[in-house]
Amino acid sequence: MLKSPRLSAKLLRKIFVSASIRRWNDQACPVEFVELDKQAHKMVIAYFLSRYEEIQRGIEVDWEKLICFFCFEFFERMVLTDIKPPVFHKLQKHHRNELADFVVEALREDIELYGLLTSLQEYLKNPPKCLEVDILRASHFYASKWEFDIIYNFNPKMYGVENIKNIIDCEVEHFYHLAGMSEIVLYQKSKEVIDMFGQLRFQKRWSQTPRVPETSVLGHTLVVAMSAYLLSLDLGVCKQMRINHFLCGLFHDLPEILTRDIISPIKHNVKGLDEQLKKIEREAVQEKILSNVPANIVEDIEYFTQNEFSNRYKLASSFAPIYLESGEELLKNYDKDEFDPVCGEFLKFCDHLSAFLEAKISIAHGISSQDLLQGSKGIYEKCSQKAMGGVDLGKIIREFE
Description:
Distance between the termini: 23 Å
Number of helices: 19
Shape: globular
Order of helices and strands: HEEHHHHHHHHHHHHHHEEHEHHH
Number of strands: 5
CATH superfamily of the largest domain: Hypothetical protein af1432
Number of domains: 2
CATH class of the largest domain: Mainly Alpha
C-alpha cells in the first residue's frame, strides 16, 4: 500500500504565488524583480557563505538547520506578501508574536502533517542566535543589495534612492565578520560568481511561449529544491540525502547561466546535441565558476551538476561518484549519511513537477498555448503514477487535474 505524500498541490500553489509578488514596485526598475527569485538568490548566497565559513574558519554549519530556517523565512514572506519591508521590520519590533501566529494559522493545513508548526512558530517569535541565522540574514541583505544596485544605477537621482542604498549598504556591513561576506565584497572573482547566479533571474523558463507567472530559471531551481526537501521527508531518507536533494535541486540548472534554457525538443531530437551541450557546459562551468571558488565548493558543484539526474553515492575512500541505474536500489542499500547519496531519479521527478506546475498554473490563469498543453500532458503521462520508496509521488500531479 503506497503512502500519500504530505506535500500538497495547495502548498505548491502558494509557493508559486511568490513568482507574482513584485519587489521594489515603488521604484523605477529597469527589470522586474519578484520574491521567488530573491529567495532563490538568497539561498544560493547562503550556501556560499556557509562553505566559506567551513573552509576558512573551520566552523561546522548545520546544513539541515540552515535549510529549515530558510524555509521558515520563505513561508513568512509568502504569507505576509503585502507588507513593505520597512513597515514589516517596524511591525516586528512590537507585534512579532502576533505576526508569527498569523503565519502559522495561514499555513496550518499545509504543513501540520510535517510536524513543523511548533518549530515555525518558535523560530518566527524568537529566532535563535546562531551561525545559521546570521548567514541567512547576511544573505537576505546582500540579495537585496544586489537588486537595489541595479535600480540605483538605473536612476540614482530618484527621490529617496540614495537613502535606501545607504541603509542597505550599512546592513550588509554588519556581516563583514563572516568570512564569505568579506570574500564577496573584497574580491571581484568571488563577487562575479554570485552575480552569475543572479543572472539566472533574467532567463525565463518556457521562453518561446507566454505564461503567467513568468518564472525564471533561478526561481524554478528553488521550487525544485523545496519540493525535493519536503518529499525527502516523506521518503524518510537519511539527513545527508535530504540536504543533498535540496542543494542539488538548487544548483541543477547552474550550467544554463552559460548556455541559456535550451528547450527539451531541441536537446533530445537533434542527434548528438545533448552530449555536445554537456561538454560545453562542463568546460564553461570550469572556466567561469570552479576556477574561482575554494576546493570544497568545487567538489559540491561537480557532484551536484554533472549527471545531475543520475542515482549516485560516494565511498569515503574515493571522491568519484558511483552510479546506479535504479533509484530504488539506492534508497534500499545506500540510504546512509556515510554514502553522501543522491537519488537523481527522484530529483528528475521534482524537476518535472515544477515544470508541470508552471504549465498548469498558467493555463488556469487563462494563458495557454500548444507548448503548455502538450508539455503538461506529457509530464502527466510520464509522472502521474510515479512511486518511490513506498510513496505515491504521482498523487501531487493527479491533484492538479
